[in-house]
Design brief:
The chain is mainly α. The chain contains 9 helices and 2 strands; from the N terminus they run E-H-H-H-E-H-H-H-H-H-H.
């Protein structure tokens, strides 16, 4: 059995810092420190994302919440791009991006592990494919092989339903793209948190 030591992790808790309510009864020094920290975070975010529609961007960033406490792997860069798209108001790209990233993670896990399961009944279904777009096969196969963590299985199944609603034409998406995107991002983050957590194995 191989043992791995995690050297790099990815985490962003700035949204949590902005969500802290500064109470009147706090000591003046503590209140001032939190006010200064929040002001610095807001200023930096507006530098990164632009001051036009700045309050809306800050709200989007806060609503996303903290990024998952994840090992650094192939998903981090793409998740960051998806979240940046959401912050600047690119809700539909963020929605479809979150769904596409879920499929990419499933395929990456499958291709990385399938040669170890050549004797399994599922292998004959997936061994010739360079990629798969059938989520039920991917999720069932990886779950049967013991690759997916239980929380990730649940989140993947929820993301599959979101994907089907987002990709296939539905008129209501024209009006609820923000809420759909936020749900999709939080769901893919649950996948990452469940499967790639930098904390102890669950």
């Amino acid at each position: 059995m191989k043992r791995y030591r995690i050297l790099n992790i990815d985490f962003d808790a700035r949204a949590n810092m902005l969500n802290i309510k500064i109470e009147d009864w706090w000591e003046p020094k503590v209140k001032l420190l939190h006010q200064e920290n929040q002001a610095k975070i807001r200023s930096r975010l507006l530098q990164d994302f632009g001051s036009t529609a700045g309050e809306a961007k800050l709200k989007n960033f806060i609503d996303l919440g903290a990024a998952p406490f994840s090992i650094v792997a192939y998903h981090n860069r793409f998740l960051r791009q998806i979240c940046h798209s959401f912050v600047i108001g690119g809700y539909y790209p963020a929605l479809t991006g979150a769904c596409a990233l879920g499929e990419r993670i499933l395929n990456h896990l499958l291709l990385s592990h399938r040669d170890f399961f050549k004797s399994s009944p599922e292998y004959k279904t997936v061994y010739r494919k360079d990629s798969l777009d059938k989520w039920d096969i991917l999720i069932t196969t990886l779950n049967s092989w013991g690759i997916l963590q239980p929380d990730a299985v649940t989140a993947f199944n929820e993301l599959k339903d979101i994907r089907n609603r987002a990709i296939h034409f539905r008129p209501e998406t024209d009006h609820n793209d923000r809420s759909l995107a936020l749900t999709a991002i939080h769901t893919i983050e649950r996948v990452i948190d469940g499967q790639f957590s930098a904390l102890a194995a669950r």
